Amino acid sequence: MLAGCTVGPNFQPDRMKVPAGFKEAAEEKPATPEQIARTDKEMTEWWASFNDPILTRLVEDAIKGNYDLQEAGQRILAERALRDKAASAWYPQMDANAGGGDVRYSINIDNWPLRPGNPANQPEASMLTYGMSATWEIDVFGRIRRAVEAHERSVETSIEGRRALLMMLLSELANDYMLLRVTQLQIQIATDNIKVAKDSFDLANRLYLEGVGNTLQTAQAQAELDSQIAAREPLKTHVSQISHAISVLTGKMPGELEDELKVVRPLPKVPEFPATMPSIVIANRPDIRAAEKQYAMATAEVGVAVADLYPHFVIPLNFNPNASAMYQAFQANAMSWQFLMMASLPLMHGGKYTATIRAAQAAAEASRLHYRQTVLNGFKEVEDAMAAWHDDIEYAEQLHKASEDSALARDRARRLYAAGLIGFLDVLTAERTTLDAQNHEALSRLERLRDAVNLYTAIGAGWRGVALTSSSLPVSLQTQNAWAQAFQQ
Questions:
Q1: DSSP state for residue 81 in the 8-state scheme
Q2: Residues of 222-248 as b/e, b for ≥16 C-beta within 10 angstroms?
Q3: Most buried of 24, 107, 134, 201, CB within 10 angstroms?
Q4: Average pLDDT, integer, range 63-72
Q5: d(C-alpha 178, C-alpha 457), whole Å
């Protein structure tokens, strides 16, 4: 009956009209059950699709050890405690008291009545008192229910916030790992080019000794060799810095994983494009889920504001005997108590309550609009990630072809220079072109890997199946007093 008296609007999800699928998905035919099962698994553990055991282990370490993630978990526990605190208003609030001592009253007041038990009207008296007080608010119009509902939505919002943090953490970790492997590939490319530059220097020096070359060519060859050696050093520094970043993301000290990560491994495998991609997958995004929870919380807060316009019903209970001697404290004459039914209704407050309602309504509408904008941004990020995935395939293939062609041109230039048919400048140009092409190809492979990570992040994959780790300070009710255990204060 009381629930039927709850005032304020009930939350209704805002249903936007969205397309059935993504434009950039380009699904040519329906997916098979096997493909659907594979896609569903990738929604849970997308990092496993790269077939890199080191990456998989780093992800597991980050989920267990990242301190930002653990901090977010503690904020969820704090929000749950605040919800329980709000829910405690449903129950009677009861306190006990006891005391005693000497008191003195003023007698400089005309017609001061004689106090019971003190016929001489002496200013001093001894007093012993004990008793209890209680109050119970009857939640007729749902003010407490709406407050608890708002706190419950706040808990759900904090859960989605942790999921969003988890997704960003895994995305950053995966991108750092991909960058680490590509940087190691660039170091290998630089090392190979140093060897090529050393061979070119030896060739220029040999031709000079044979009287075919000149000192300019040997100086150019030496400068090119020095440049190639110098260009490799910043890459080594970058590898160390990325290793430090990965260590911190997994909850370890910088440098703790450096020795392991510096071991050169092949680039992770680029996974296949998801076989099926209906637009409903965007509902997995924690930011969209959090925006909807915030809208629900703002709607509940409108109900709290509306309930303040209605009467508040409170049952106060006070039992407070007092006497001057211990043997008198439990006599009938020492008894003092009150048991009432109180109701209060706001009459005139200059528009304070109606202004609060208008503010709550505006905040709820702002939350609804924010939810819609979050959905649009989510669709944009997914479409962008899909477009990059498809376009970068051809981009990487063309750069691979350019790298092979430039390496062929470099080899031919060296042979022509050895035969005296071209100058050494042509050899330098060919070597630099080859180096640029190889580095661009390596970076294109990094983009292909990042495209996959960004797509999985955009569709909200990776947080399902990761449970909240509950950790707290070593304080429990079992170690507290008996009253805390008995009455769950």
A1: H
A2: eebbeebeeebeebeebbeebbbbbbb
A3: 201
A4: 92
A5: 15
Domain-located, residue 344: no
CA dihedral 443, 444, 450, 456 (to 10 degrees): -170
CB burial string 306-342: b at 16+ within 10 A, e below: bbbeeebeeeeeebebbbbeeeebeeeebeeeeeeee
Tell me how far apart the alpha carbons of residues 315 and 312 are, in angstroms, rounded to a whole number: 10
Domains identified in the chain, total number: 1
> 33-68 burial, b for 16+ CB within 10 Å, e for fewer?
eeeeebbeebbebbbebbebebbeebbebbbeebeb
Rg (CA), the chain: 37
Asked if the structure places residue 217 within a domain, the reply is yes
CA dihedral 117, 122, 123, 129 (to 10 degrees): -20
Rounded Cα–Cα distance for residues 277 and 155 (Å): 30
pTM of the model: 0.84
Give the three-state DSSP class for 54. Answer: helix
Q: What is the 3-state secondary structure (H, E, C) of 411-459?
A: HHHHHHHHCCCCCHHHHHHHHHHHHHHHHHHHHHHHHHHHHHHHHHHHC
Residue 28 above 70 pLDDT? no
**Is 380 strand, coil or helix?**
helix
The CB-based long-range contact list for 393-401 (8 Å cut-off, 24+ gap) reads 393/448, 395/444, 395/447, 396/441, 396/444, 396/445, 396/447, 396/448, 399/437, 399/440, 399/441, 399/444, 400/441, 400/444
DSSP β-bridge partners for residue 342: 314
Tokens of 292: 């909807």
Going by C-alpha positions, the residue among 262, 284, 319 that lies closest to residue 130 is 319
What pLDDT, on a 0 to 100 scale, did the predictor assign at position 4? 63
Q: How many CB atoms are located within 10 Å of the residue 423 CB?
A: 16
* CB of 59 closer than 8 Å to CB of 47: yes
**Is 55 inside any structural domain?**
yes
In a domain, residue 481? The reply is yes
* 330-374 pLDDT tens trace: 888 888 888 888 999 999 999 999 999 999 999 999 999 999 999
Q: Write the CA distances from 72 to 66, 67, 251, 283, 329, integer angstroms.
A: 10, 9, 14, 21, 53
Residues of the chain with pLDDT > 70, as a percent, come to 89
Residues spanned by the domain of 46: 3-91+139-311+367-487
Query: Whose structure tokens read 């008198």?
Result: 328
Quick one: average pLDDT of 61-67?
93
- Dihedral over alpha carbons 403, 404, 409, 412 (to 10 degrees): 140
Strands 322-323 and 93-104: unpaired
